């Protein structure tokens, strides 16, 4: 019987995969077993999925659904395909329970299970479900003539750009419940620039209004909450932001472990209060910053370093946040970027295309998965 103690990571997104890769380099494998648990046998690179669901692109699909077989450096880790539905916590460790009923003990636990999306980024957690989700959306977009996107954040804006690339003659309308697109984390001038950029593609924008349709589905016209009739609309698509996947955390640790928005409360070291052997990272943490893949990757690397420090009885480092920035695509050849440094720097199509719009950061993802 093995006497090794398990370091268990729940969720293989940007935070979990980067934490696993970093820990596989440093853990003493004679004492510890690194285990990464994820519902799918591969990691979906969400950054590129809006282009994938608009029209069939088999090569892109292969490139953004890479397995975890090369994440562990020198094979120093184990991947378990499964969905964690509950866990038990104690001062010296605990256990996680999978949907299959399997229990896995842990000495240290990392919660990086990500968020739950609606609409196009809301992929099911089975391989067959993922394939059906992609083909269903591609079919809906192909048939539709007048598409209404509910939500004008990053998802709505980028999806509108992808639609206009493939279907320039289809009518696309974004309905957003604020006075400007995006959210107030960004300066008004950036939000106005995003509107100008997407309108230049022929996309209509309705602000300060809502569409009370809670799912992506075909329709025969729709009326906004403000009374605007979109009579020819034949497809409504959810493009709102996600909600944290943390219900099982509250069940294990109590409602006080979560913020009012359902995010996991963490200390600056990304440990949970009263649970020094449990860390959290990625979209699930209660931290005053925008949820983005780049930040989640940084969380994962810090958590890995702090776990190693904890095992070595060393000093843990605090998370100091990251510079707010956003790079929005507008199809393959356009977009805009904002960096909250100096006076606030905004860049246009050339920069967005250079860093994101053309490749969708797929080379970065492939490197993280060990496929560079």
From TrEMBL:
Domain of life, source organism: Eukaryota
The species this protein was found in: Hypsizygus marmoreus
Keywords (A to Z) from UniProt: FAD, Flavoprotein, Oxidoreductase
Protein name: Apoptosis-inducing factor B
GO cellular component, one term: cytoplasm
GO molecular function: electron-transferring-flavoprotein dehydrogenase activity; flavin adenine dinucleotide binding
Family (UniProt): Belongs to the FAD-dependent oxidoreductase family.
Gene3D superfamilies to which the protein is assigned, alphabetical: 3.50.50.100
Pfam families noted in UniProt: Pyr_redox_2
Record has rRNA processing as a keyword: no
Domain FAD/NAD(P)-binding: 6-297
InterPro entries for the chain: FAD/NAD-bd_sf, FAD/NAD-binding_dom
